[in-house]
Write a structure and sequence with these properties.
The protein is mainly alpha-helical. It has helices at 5-19, 23-26, 31-50, 58-69, 73-80, 84-92, 99-109, 113-117. The chain has 8 helices and no strands. Helix 1 (5-19) packs antiparallel against helix 3 and helix 5 (73-80) crosses helix 6.
Length: 119
C-alpha cells in the first residue's frame, strides 16, 4: 500500500518506465507485465483514496456541454426557453432550475437527470 506522495511519485515513474517496453504490456508471462499490473493497482488504490472524484455539478456540466456544442448563454437561453439572466444564475449556481427547465436541460443538453436534479 502506498503511504506517501513520495512513494506515489516513485511508483508512477516506475510505471512510466515499464510502459515504454511493449513486452510489458502485451506478454502476460513477462516479469514486467506482472510488475506493471501490481504497481498500477497500487497507484489506482492510492488515487481513489487521496484524490476522490467529486460528483459533477450542474453548472460545470452545463458549461462543458455549452463548450462542446459551441453555445453561448444567449443561444442556450433560446434553446431552453428561459432568459439569459436565468442561464447566468444556473451557471453561477445562484439558483436551481424548475422541474420543467431541468427536464429541458437534461433532454436538450444530454445531461444525466441525476446531475440536473443534484441527486
Amino acid at each position: 500500500m502506498i503511504q506517501t506522495e513520495k512513494e506515489y511519485n516513485v511508483i508512477s515513474n516506475r510505471i512510466e518506465v515499464l510502459l515504454q517496453n511493449s513486452e510489458n504490456i502485451e506478454n502476460q508471462d513477462s516479469q514486467g507485465y506482472i510488475e506493471l499490473n501490481v504497481l498500477s493497482d497500487l497507484l489506482a488504490e492510492f488515487e481513489e483514496n487521496q484524490y476522490p472524484l467529486k460528483k459533477p455539478t450542474l453548472s460545470d456540466t452545463m458549461k462543458l456541454r455549452m463548450f462542446e456544442r459551441g453555445l453561448n448563454q444567449k443561444r442556450l437561453s433560446e434553446l431552453l426557453g428561459v432568459s439569459t439572466s436565468r442561464i447566468s444564475e444556473y451557471l453561477t449556481g445562484k439558483c436551481e432550475p424548475t422541474l420543467k427547465t431541468a427536464r429541458e436541460i437534461s433532454q436538450k443538453l444530454d445531461i444525466d437527470p441525476i446531475i440536473v436534479l443534484g441527486i
